[in-house]
Specification:
Metallophosphoesterase_sf; elongated; 2 domains; Calcineurin-like_PHP; 16 strands; transmembrane; alpha/beta; membrane; hydrolase; Purple Acid Phosphatase, chain A, domain 2; six-stranded mixed beta sheet
Length: about 350
């Protein structure tokens, strides 16, 4: 638990409910202020009870609810024998609030969806190397599915104040734990994915590829993202800025779209924002997002060619998907924004 945030939550719940009970009782006592102002007293009572309910729900109930976000994406120049089902999660953040039991629960929920491929977009731990031990439960996934992961800023324990620093050793512990669990950790590496070619009839003429390239990039905020190295290792078929097969980039921070090299991608998959964790209906995320992108880039699918929030120099063909994540960092809080597993259907 996080003693600071949890203390604030518990103290507020105690104070709100205590005050609510007190004014509720005093409303029947003659000469009391509450007795003389029954409507105001009732309004305050309702506000205190409602706020306590919202805080309790957002702190202890909604963060434990797993939702499935189903998204269909038409990739250019892609003709699989059948749609490729990709399970995407990000921001697992084991350590403070969620541990191995949560990892097993998430794994079992993914298994029920029978994906073809599982991708994890970084921030696997809160910030301490000992947190990585809780990730071993993902072995439930790797026994049946190919799983690819990248690292995020929490995995490097990136700190900006009082000066910028990262912990390479922490990232290595996370890397080794995921590898031991059977995952493929991509740190500026590319892999050819041929799942879409399964069941291909011999001799059938095809006008488009049935495979795609997956490039996993190391963390952007830690200064470890190196697209050139990723491409040079396996040399995907890139001709200038054109790719002959679909090109998918898995990177934790969506700020990567500000890098000119991101223009090589047909689809970029990322996390990091948590969707704000706390959202206000019709208004969007309540807190400031940890991103250099416009505030509208909070969660969901974005067409980078027609997104007016981007400066003209950053607009180009391609899609960006930002998942709101499966866990929390900072306070144990999610409101109008439950943890999600994204099930992408690539066609």
């Amino acid at each position: 638990m996080n003693l600071f945030f949890d203390s604030i939550i518990i103290l507020y719940l105690i104070a709100a409910l205590t005050f609510a009970v007190a004014i509720f009782c005093d409303r029947k006592v003659p000469n009391k202020w509450e007795y003389k102002h029954p409507r105001i007293t009732l309004a305050v009572f309702i506000f205190l009870c409602s706020s306590a309910l919202v805080v309790f729900w957002g702190s202890f109930i909604e963060p434990r609810i797993i939702t499935i976000n189903r998204v269909s994406i038409d990739l250019p120049n892609f003709e699989p024998t059948q749609p490729v089902r990709v399970a995407l999660i990000s921001d697992v953040h084991v350590g403070t609030y969620k541990k191995d039991g949560w990892v097993r629960r998430v794994s079992n929920r993914i298994i029920t969806e029978h994906p073809d491929l599982v991708l994890m977009a970084g921030d696997m731990i809160v910030d301490k190397p000992e947190h990585a031990q809780y990730l071993s439960g993902f072995r439930l996934l790797t026994t049946d599915y190919p799983v690819y992961a990248v690292l995020g800023d929490h995995d490097y324990h990136v700190r900006k104040n009082p000066r910028f620093s990262i912990e390479e050793s922490t990232a290595q512990v996370v890397n080794d734990t995921l590898t031991s669990a059977g995952m493929h950790v991509l740190r500026n590496e590319a892999r050819e994915i041929n799942i879409g070619c399964t069941g291909l009839s011999p001799g059938r003429e095809r006008t488009k590829p049935c495979n795609f390239w997956l490039v996993g990039l190391d963390d952007w905020l830690a200064g470890k993202t190196d697209f050139a190295t990723a491409v040079s290792v396996t040399k995907p078929p890139i001709n200038g800025n054109l790719v002959t097969t679909p090109f998918i980039i898995l990177v934790h921070n969506p700020d990567f779209i500000l890098d000119p090299q991101s223009k090589n991608a047909d689809l970029i998959l990322s996390g990091n924002t948590h969707g704000g964790q706390i959202r206000i209906p019709l208004l969007g995320p309540a807190p400031r997002l940890p991103s250099e992108l416009p505030r509208s880039f909070d969660e969901g699918l974005f067409n980078l060619q027609y997104t007016e929030a981007l400066p003209p120099e950053n607009r180009r063909q391609g899609l960006l998907f930002i998942t709101s994540g499966i866990s929390e960092s900072g306070p144990r809080a999610r409101l109008f924004n439950p943890p999600e597993i994204v099930l992408l259907e690539l066609r």
